[in-house]
Amino acid sequence: MLVFVIVGKSDIPLYQAMFIKSNETEDVSRSDQFLIHAALDCVDEQVWQNSAPFLRMVDFSEKAQIFAYVTPGHTRFMLYVEEPTAQTESLAESFFKQVHETYMKVILNPFYEANTPITMSAFDEKIKNIGMKTFSSYLPR
Fold first, then answer.
1. How many helices (H) and strands (E) are present in the chain, helices listed first?
2. How many domains, the chain?
3. Which domain holds residue 117?
């Protein structure tokens, strides 16, 4: 299972998407959600130490890793990955770059109010397509 979250300023959740294997259920446990939100503190610490937007793995547990990407406007992209592989980091970086491009189109839209939840179905569909394409080897159908 992969969970992608966009977190805006003041830790406001803006968007969430899940990518699951065909045999998994669409359920994020409370401990998984806690791990994702706890990783925000790690991201805030690493932002000051690293000028690159892709922060790599910022937190982990015995079954998952969390990768992060920070935009110039300090919006955080978080990716929770269960059962990571050796290729997960490079796939996460590619995913984040594509998502950032899509996110830029949203925030440049004059009808989008900054730092509010992203509810556009076209955005959701695009993110899910990017995720399924990027992680196709990880998420067999």
1. 3, 5
2. 1
3. 2-134
DSSP label at 88? Answer: H
Tell me the pTM. 0.90
61-111 pLDDT per residue, tens: 888 999 999 999 999 999 999 888 889 999 999 999 999 999 999 999 999
**Burial (CB count <10 Å: 0-12, 13-18, 19+), residue 82:** middle
**CATH number of the domain to which 65 belongs:** 3.30.450.70
Q: What is the pLDDT of residue 6?
A: 97
Question: In this predicted structure, what is the pLDDT of residue 30?
Answer: 67
Tell me, yes or no, whether 139 lies in a domain.
Answer: no
Burial of 25 (0-12, 13-18, 19+ CB in 10 A): exposed
Q: Write out the two tokens for 47.
A: 């932002």
Determine the Cα–Cα distance for residues 123 and 128; give it in Å rounded to an integer.
9
**pLDDT tens-digit map of 23-40:** 655 555 667 778 888 899
User: Alpha-carbon distance 61 to 55, whole Å?
Assistant: 17
| Cα dihedral 20→23→28→33 (10° resolution) | -60
